[in-house]
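Case 490 in the screening queue. Each case pairs one protein sequence with one candidate compound; here the compound is zinc ion. For every case the pipeline is the same: read the inputs, emit a complex structure as tokens, and attach any notable structural observations.

Predict complex for case 490.
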Amino acid sequence: MSKERIKGISVKKNQNFSKWFLELVQKAELADTRYKIKGMIVYMPWATITIRKMYEKYQNLLEKKGHLPITLPSLIPESNFKLESDHVEGFTPEVFWVTHGGKNKLEERLALRPTSETAFYQMYSLWIRSYKDLPFKRYQSCQVWRHEGKATFPFFRAREFHWIESHNVFASKKDAMSQINEDMETTYEMLQDNFCIPIIFFQRPHWDKFAGTEETFAADALTQSGKVIQLPSTHYLGKKFSKPFNVTFLDKNNKEQYGHITCYGPAISRIYGGMVAILGDDNGLVLPWDLSPLHVVIIPIYNAKTKNNVMKKAKEIEKTVKVSLKECKVKLDDRDEISPGEKFNEWELRGVPLRIEIGPKDIESKKVVAVNRIDRKKQAVKWTNIGKFVNDFSKNFTDQLKKKTLISFESKVKTAKTIIEIKKVIDDGMIACTGFCSLELSGKKCAESIKEKTGAEVRGKRVGKEKNKFKQCCVCGKPSKETVYIAKSY
Ligand SMILES: [Zn+2]
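Case 490 output:
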């Protein structure tokens, strides 16, 4: 057990977010960043256990909605990769290539998949025959590799990350767009309801789309600082890939048609990073009940004289908790080499939802002290009531966390008409809503000007009803075609 961990985090989250996050990752033992390839980290048990639970929840929900799991090879032949020109242009700078098998140079380079469109669709062209096969919905859970040029940051930006990618084929654009809506609902259900991360969806500007898509819809996580974190996105690919890959079906009139494709890519490792960043506090990690590797830690407080009595009761309580809540992971921390206070710090750092303390006074009063990780409030609980208490606590914990972290989008938004006004809104830690000339390529210059003068980006237009309307673009003064949102991002 490292002494470092026991000391806690040396900076406050709102004073220096990066330092706070990196210290948390190291001291709570979420990842080890010392692996000898830049941008590739080792996921430690505490993170791996939670990430597995996140995968399980996501996979269950996708399968409930008709997506079936498959597993494709990690390598993609260059010839597949080259078939769609925007895609190859967008991804080539980031591809890791496999060029040799042993000592021999391969006849064709193989891409270590940065994403798997060009693997899925080769197979889809073999599998899909008729309109009766549609919708065709498959996904895989896997790792992908991108030779990221920007500075890497654990979980958020890495050269290897863990994700789910679902690829779906439909007979019409209408069917495909309803899949896009379903993907957005899935994202709300997972991120907000299960992971306690507040999000909002934007349709991204043309210049900020995933390479090779017609339309991109991306979730931005909201933080108290006003900065957003890009999380899952779902894409309408139209026929851009179905044409070169020959993903076709025979319609009801026996006529051959190209499929309309959508893809959805929740990056679980990045969502985990977002969850750690948004839910964590100055004392460390905070996790939803279901995702915690450990739920309850019991800490006995004793001296040589009282040790036997306290330990005997602590063991009884451990058993009571285990019996009353089957799924509950509970640990009695009986280490002698560190003090109870150090144990409190350590388990707070690692985000265990409930701490139960028991000392000689509690033996006399037949009670324990229960401490909630979210607000660190203490309460006395009678021994006879512990089973029910832990049961209720487990049911309420995640809702309590959600109440604390959920930010209403409206409360973070302020309207602005000029760049000067936008800058003020951004500097105040808010998201700016403004008029904009175009989200097509012609608007790119205005977006660059905003970025240069305010440090913030055009995130796109809001998905759903927009009640704010503007007459002019905030930069060029041309008529405003779109109401857009501008925010800094992590
Ligand atoms: Zn403009």
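Case 490 observations:
- The chain has a mean pLDDT of 95.
- The radius of gyration is 26 Å.
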